[in-house]
């Protein structure tokens, strides 16, 4: 059983991404982890933001998406579920130097200790796990 978990449903609208960042900060704060100045916690906020941003940008036909957060033994699992069948690349690269997009999953891959994508129902769940330091670095 996770020591703390939340699940929230969001509309696939750009404004929702800030609410997802707040969801992560609130869950960490509820366990006494203040994200500000804590690099591992800020990384978790960033990863959740990228995954939610992808649900908004690339799975907008879903209409809504859900974000589940589970904190267990110092690991935060972030799962973003949408109903779009397309998936992120398994091996993200930075791509063209001049490209204005296409870096989100590269960041997730760099910051998460593990991440993946699993088909679920008519869509999929993109998940990432990060180690959270309780102490500020
Ligand atoms: N939730 C998703 N549903 C469908 N396709 C996705 C999803 N997430 C990522 N993808 C696909 O993977 C590609 C790479 O995602 P990535 O987040 O790296 O870049 P981006 O979203 O295109 O740009 P950026 O994140 O830099 O703004 C996307 O362009 C999209 O084709
Ligand atoms: Mg993206």
Which sequence of SSEs, written as H and E, runs from N to C? EHHEEHEE
> Tell me, what is the CATH class?
Alpha Beta
Unreliable parts? none
Q: What class do helices, strands and sheet pairing give?
A: alpha+beta
Helix proportion range: 25-40%
CATH architecture: 2-Layer Sandwich
Largest sheet: 5 strands, antiparallel
Return Rg in Å: 14 Å
Ligand inventory: adenosine-5'-triphosphate, magnesium ion
Average pLDDT confidence is 94
Looking at the structure, what is the overall shape?
globular
Q: Beta-sheet strand percentage?
A: 25-35%
Provide an overview of this structure.
The radius of gyration is 14 Å and the shape is globular. The mean pLDDT is 94. It is built from three helices and five strands; from the N terminus they run βααββαββ. Strands 1-2-3-5-4 form a five-stranded antiparallel beta sheet, with helices on one face. α1 (16-30) runs antiparallel to α2 and α2 (39-58) runs antiparallel to α3 (104-111). The protein starts with a strand and ends in a 6-residue tail after the last strand. With 137 residues, it is α+β, with helices and mostly antiparallel strands. Helix content is 31%, strand content 30%. The chain has one domain: Heat Shock Protein 90 (2-Layer Sandwich). A hairpin with a 2-residue loop joins β4 (114-120) and β5 (123-131). It has helices at residues 16-30, 39-58, 104-111, and strands at residues 4-11, 64-72, 75-82, 114-120, 123-131. Bound molecules: adenosine-5'-triphosphate and magnesium ion. The site of adenosine-5'-triphosphate has 20 residues, from α2 and α3. Residues 50, 54-55, 57-59, 82, 84, 86-89, 92, 101-106, 126 line the site of adenosine-5'-triphosphate (ATP).
């Amino acid at each position: 059983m996770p020591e703390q978990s939340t699940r929230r449903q969001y509309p696939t609208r750009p404004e929702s991404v800030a609410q997802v960042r707040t969801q992560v900060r609130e869950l960490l704060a509820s366990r006494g982890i203040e994200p500000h100045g804590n690099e591992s916690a800020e990384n978790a906020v960033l990863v959740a933001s990228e995954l939610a941003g992808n649900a908004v940008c690339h799975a907008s036909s879903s209409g809504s998406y859900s974000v589940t957060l589970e904190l267990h033994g110092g690991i935060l699992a972030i799962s973003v579920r949408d109903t779009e069948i397309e998936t992120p690349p398994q091996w993200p690269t930075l791509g063209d130097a001049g490209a204005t997009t296409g870096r989100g999953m590269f960041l997730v891959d760099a910051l998460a200790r593990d991440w993946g994508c699993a088909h679920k129902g008519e869509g999929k769940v993109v998940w990432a796990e990060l180690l959270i330091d309780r102490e500020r670095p």
